[in-house]
Amino acid sequence: METIVIPKIKIEKQKGLVILPLTEYRKLAERTVPIYYLNGKAAEKIDRLVIEGLKEHRAGKTKKIQSLADLE
């Protein structure tokens, strides 16, 4: 096993350090993303937008971009 050295100055600058197993980190990260459930008109509007977007994608009316600057 190798030793990892983290400078004390860096820990103080970052105001602490947390070490977690990767599985615990993934569980924590999954819980931080909020989940929204839409009902009524809002859900119908989003559903229509998704259906319309998928139709346009299948028809080849969309383009792949690297950044928002490519839209201009």
If you average the pLDDT, what whole number results? 90
**Series of H and E elements:** HHH
Query: How much helix is in the residues?
Result: 40-55%
Number of strands: 0
Category by helix and strand content: mainly alpha
Number of helices: 3
Cα shape: elongated
Low-pLDDT segments, ≥5 res = none
Report how far the terminal alpha carbons are from each other.
Answer: 52 Å
Please, could you describe this protein's structure?
The chain is an all-alpha fold and 72 residues long. The protein has a domain at 34-61. It is built from three helices and no strands. The relative contact order is 0.05. The mean pLDDT is 90.
Question: Could you outline the blueprint of secondary structure elements for this entry?
Answer:
Blueprint: H1 8-14, H2 22-32, H3 40-58
Task: Considering the chains and any ligands shown, give keywords for the structure.
72 residues; mainly alpha; 51% helix
Q: TL;DR of this structure?
A:
Helices cover 51% and strands 0% of the residues. It has helices spanning 8-14, 22-32, 40-58.
